[in-house]
């Protein structure tokens, strides 16, 4: 189950043997956490283990405009610039993620952004996945007890 989950979270960019190796690493990290992880809630250990295992695929930012740059850098054809509001009004995270969802859906292939819950800090933790895999990722995450949802900035 971890192998499929990892494959889908990687946007299907990993070879099967790479996904299996990372799956074994993830399973070991969850089953036998490192000493520094023992003070964490068991739920946080699993969440963090996935992020550490797939660190090349997760994007972390404390501000949505900075996160936008990280997301845009993941594409060969950069995304449109961060949308600006008229006047001094800052764009809400929910407004940005709604705008971004449309931009990612228009890509070929269509992509989606998932928000990965991280109870250890206040940053936004996201991963870009194939839109067609979103339902399966959410189902697998639910089965395995991971907290992930479509990025909405709530």
Short structural description:
This protein is of the alpha+beta class and 154 residues long. It contains 6 helices and 4 strands, in the order H-H-H-E-H-H-E-E-H-E.
Tell me what you see in this structure:
The protein has 154 residues and is α+β, with helices and mostly antiparallel strands. The chain has one domain (2-150). It has 6 helices and 4 strands. A 4-stranded antiparallel sheet has the order 1-3-2-4, sandwiched between helices. Strand 2 and strand 3 form a beta hairpin. The longest helix is centred in the first third of the chain and has 16 residues, at 16-31. It is globular, with a radius of gyration of 16 Å. 25% of the residues are buried.
């Amino acid at each position: 189950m971890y192998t499929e989950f990892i494959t889908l979270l990687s946007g299907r960019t990993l070879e099967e043997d790479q996904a299996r190796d990372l799956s074994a690493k993830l399973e070991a990290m969850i089953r036998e956490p490192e000493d520094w992880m023992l003070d964490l809630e068991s739920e946080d250990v699993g969440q963090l283990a996935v992020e550490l295992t797939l660190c090349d695929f997760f994007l972390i930012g404390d501000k949505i405009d900075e996160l936008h740059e990280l997301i845009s850098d993941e594409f060969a054809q950069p995304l449109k610039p961060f949308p600006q509001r008229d006047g001094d009004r800052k764009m809400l995270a929910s407004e940005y993620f709604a705008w971004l969802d449309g931009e990612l859906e228009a890509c070929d292939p269509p992509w989606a952004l998932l928000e990965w819950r991280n109870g250890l800090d206040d940053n936004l933790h996201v991963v870009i996945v194939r839109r067609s895999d979103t339902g399966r990722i959410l189902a697998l995450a639910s089965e395995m007890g991971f907290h992930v949802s479509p990025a909405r900035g709530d």
